[in-house]
Structure formats: structure tokens, C-alpha cells
Amino acid sequence: MSAQIFETDVTHPHLTRLIAELDAYQYPLYPPESFQGIDITELNEGEITCFMARVDDDWAGCACLFITKHGIAEMKRVYVNPLFRGQGIASLLIAAMEKKLKALGYKELFLETGVFQEKAITLYEKLGYSRTEAFGDYLLAPDPLSVYMMKSVR
């Protein structure tokens, strides 16, 4: 089984389902004030590109690239359904985002994840992301349960 990565918009019904799965997984891990789940259809103060992974007839994962109105590129809503984990799908989704980012002329990609997302943090570090300070809107109220990371994608 190999995954195919597709670029899509935020209204794709399978994207909505995958993000609902992500929220259901993450919500019990954090107190409400630390839950960073967002409705990607409400990210109207910037530019968003979403990617989905398909394995055979199943939609296996998703990730979104958000460019804020201030020109900060942020990775959002990265998720792989548990049935498809360990197959490199998250890495493929992130590579697609990085390729798009370069094509758009950006040089850095930021992300925010939770301290309890240990496997995700390990993956991001393996892919060259390093911890950094809060960025963008996170500067307004940095969360002690958040991990902020960045990678140069030159």
C-alpha cells in the first residue's frame, strides 16, 4: 500500500471527517484553555492549502499549510488515522507542505503541537524541525502545554 497525496480545499468532506477524528483524539489530552484545535474554515485572515493522503479507497491523513496575514507559514491539523500510522504518511504530507511552501517563496515553516504529542514531536525532530519560541498569534498567550517548532526549508 502506498499513499497518494492530494491538494484540496478546506471544504472537502473527508478532510472535515479526518479533522473531527483528530479533535476527538486530542480533546481529552488537554484542558479546554490549552486545546488549540481550530476550525480551518474560519482561517480567513490568511491563505490555507490542505493536503490529504489516500491509500487505495481510504482517506488516511491530512495536513494544512496556513500562511498568516503577517506572512508566517504554519503547519496545521496534521493527522493520520491510527489504521495507517507507521507507513510514512505523515512524512509524505509534511513533504508536500514543504514543497508548496518553497514554491510560494517562503523559507521557514512553523508549527505548534502539544507536549503530550510525543510521537509527533519525535517525527518533527526527525524531519529537521527544532524547538523555538512562541510565534505569531501564539505570542499573545504562550501555552505551557504547547511545543513550538520551526524548520528552514530553503
Question: What would you say this structure looks like, in words?
Answer:
- The chain is an alpha+beta fold.
- It has a single domain, classed as Gcn5-related N-acetyltransferase (GNAT) (Aminopeptidase).
- Helices cover 25% and strands 34% of the residues.
- It has helices at 13-26, 89-103, 118-126; strands at 3-8, 46-55, 58-68, 73-80, 108-114, 130-132, 146-152.
- β4, α2 (89-103) and β5 (108-114) form a beta-alpha-beta unit.
- The longest helix has 15 residues, at 89-103.
- The model has no long low-confidence stretch (mean pLDDT 91).
Our estimate of the beta-strand percent is 25-35%
What is the N-to-C order of secondary-structure elements (H for helix, E for strand)? Answer: EHEEEHEHEE
Q: Which secondary-structure class do the elements indicate?
A: alpha+beta
CATH architecture assignment: 3-Layer(aba) Sandwich
Strand order within the widest beta sheet: 1-2-3-4-5-7-6
How many whole angstroms does the radius of gyration measure?
A: 14 Å
Number of domains: 1
- The general outline is globular
| CATH uppermost class | Alpha Beta
Distance between the termini: 31 Å
Largest sheet: 7 strands, mixed
The count of DSSP E runs of length 2 or more, i.e. the number of strands, is 7
Query: Helix fraction?
Result: 10-25%
CATH topology: Aminopeptidase
Q: Which superfamily, in CATH terms, is the homologous superfamily?
A: Gcn5-related N-acetyltransferase (GNAT)
Determine the number of helices (DSSP H or I, runs of at least 4 residues): 3
Low-confidence stretches: none
